[in-house]
Amino acid sequence: MKMPRRIKLGGFVVAVDSTDQMNNAGDWASVGAQIRVNTHMTECEQAETLLHEIIEAINYYGGLELEHPQLTSLSAWLFAAIRQNKLTFL
Question: pTM score, two decimals?
Fold first, then answer.
């Protein structure tokens, strides 16, 4: 998967940075609107992490107030459904 440099979420633009300077899989920072994904993982793990962090951003911007365990479960199940069914969107 080619990692995007930025994504649009509604009216927001979120920067995406691939880095090997992390101790975790990825993170989302509302200050600066930035997602970081660790490059010391497989391509599949990076894609799953990107989806997880996108959902983190949606949780923030959308005021969903999902707890992190709920968000983690949602992102894992959604990624599995997309991957196992070879879904593509536009």
Answer: 0.94
CB 56 within 8 A of CB 66: no
Phi and psi dihedrals of 53, rounded to 5? -70, -30
Q: Does the residue 80 lie in any domain?
A: yes
Of residues 19, 10, 3, 24, the one with CA closest to residue 60: 10
Burial of 9 (0-12, 13-18, 19+ CB in 10 A): middle
> In terms of residue numbers, what domain contains 63?
6-84
- CB neighbour list of residue 31: distance below 8 Å, 6 or more residues apart: none
Length of the chain: 90
State the total domains in the chain.
1
pLDDT grade, residue 84 (50/70/90)?
very high
What's the rounded Cα separation, in Å, for the pair 36 and 70? 21
Taking residue 62's Cβ as centre, other Cβ atoms within 10 Å add up to 12
